[in-house]
Amino acid sequence: MRLPLFVLICFASISLGIPARAELSVKAWKVLHGAELHMENQEYKKAIQSMRSYMDKQDSVPEQLYLLLGNCYLETDAAKAALSLLKKGVEKYPDSFYLRYNLGIAANEQEHYLLAGENFAKAYDLQQKNRKQHGDSPSLLYYSAACYFQGQKYSRALTLLERLLVRNDLKQKKERLEWIKLQVHILCQLKKWSKAAKVLTNLLRQRPELYDYWRLLARVEMYRDRYTQAAAALETAHGLNPPKPSDWRQLADIYIYLNAPLSAVRCLGLAASSETNNKKLASLYEKSNRYEDAIKTCRKLIEKDPCADNYLLLGHTQLNGGMQQESIESFSKAASSPPCKKKKRKERSRSKKKTEGEAWLMAALTAWDLQDWDQALYFFDLTKNTVPPYAKRGAQGYSYIQNILASRMTVDERMDVPKLRND
Questions:
Q1: Are 311 and 353 in contact (CB under 8 A)?
Q2: What is the chain's alpha carbon radius of gyration, rounded to the nearest angstrom?
Q3: Can you give the pLDDT at residue 12?
Q4: pLDDT at res. 340
Q5: 123, 103, 143, 146: which is closest to 14 by C-alpha?
Q6: CA pair distance 253, 249, nearest whole angstrom
Q7: What is the per-residue pLDDT for 221?
Q8: What local confidence, expressed as pLDDT, does residue 7 receive?
Q9: 114: closest CA among 78, 147, 80?
């Protein structure tokens, strides 16, 4: 079973943090200063025009201009232009923390997740080399791991995230919960089910209110073939948050697999009533020897849709419950009722002849069990006019009973012959 997952990375507004450079020329400084004034007045087009005009005429462009122009492009939703510009800036200044950080943002907005992940990771490394100047932003590693996750490079994502999680100084961080959640999803994608279960269990000990992660734990346990633990996790999740009918049905299926019919009945009873649910309920009641409940459920199906399959289900249930004569009546009604319409497009309804064949054959066999030979012959005769394999079995049954009756007549005749007296 593959999990349904999307990681949304929410970045804060860009913190430009342009470093001061003593080597800036007077002209470059004037261009930067003028562009900043335009940006303060939200005149981004003028700022872009002035910087582009300067950069097009220069062989060597300072780092600050790449940063400021890239920021302008991002502010005007020109992420593609920002990405192209910041790539050039990183090529020229590969050790620039600010360029790496902003390139990560631009790449993420353009959904170039691997490029974004690479630059967030490098920005983090550059930051750690000079915390005094750049500070310490652990979230950069989380951003990087999340980008690699979205780029489906799960092993790389896990390596980066675990670098973050082993830092003892970050164990009290509020953001740590999001880091652990991402770790769980990565482990699931890598199919490291045992480790995923361990991380989830530890997480839920600290935050038991996270009902969606109880559900995730249930899925992980099912992948490990630990269905009892999966059922327990789902029960906890359902207790924390009112589940959908489909959730109750899923839990019922697990209990069916575990051969716990009464627990399955309880779950299906809590799910919204449907034809599928009622058929499962009838079967589960029967397994629990609760034939009266099973028959009531079958009759509910018939009230809603008096079709052949529903009458057949009732007949089989009655037969298994020892109500043979009643089952013959239900099988007869099944033969005279229209086939049930299938709910799914790809499913085909059974043909009328197939339904009749099963119904008449079951009625004949039940009459035979009651040694009602006239009824048995009648139903077997009707079966002969259906389709294989029912027609063949009907003909065989008809012939067999005739032989039985013929043999009995012969025995009776012999018993009626008077004995000769020896005078």
A1: no
A2: 38
A3: 32
A4: 78
A5: 103
A6: 6
A7: 93
A8: 32
A9: 147
Q: Give the pLDDT of residue 270.
A: 67
Distance of CA 319 to CAs 31, 145, 302, 322, Å?
93, 61, 17, 5
Answer yes or no: are the C-beta atoms of 91 and 125 closer than 8 Å: no
The SS3 assignment for 355 reads helix
pLDDT at residue 14 in the model: 36
- Helix axes of 113-129 and 97-109: crossing angle, nearest 10 degrees: 160
CA distances from 356 to 333, 368, 379, 383, 392 (A): 10, 18, 10, 7, 14
What value does the mean pLDDT of the chain take? 81
Cα–Cα distance measured from residue 187 to residue 161, given in angstroms and rounded to the nearest whole number:
11
Tokens of 63: 């780092």
CA distances in angstroms from 68 to 39, 71, 75, 118, 211, listed in the order given: 9, 5, 11, 22, 45
- Residue 17 has a pLDDT of 42
pTM over 0.70: no
Q: Which residues of the chain have pLDDT under 50?
A: 1-22, 417, 419-423
Does residue 347 contact residue 341 with C-beta atoms inside 8 Å? no
Distances (CA, A) of 172 to 58, 124, 167: 49, 20, 10
Cβ distance 181 to 213 under 8 Å? yes
Question: Which stretches within 19-138 are classed as H helix?
Answer: 26-40, 44-55, 63-75, 79-92, 97-109, 113-129, 131-134
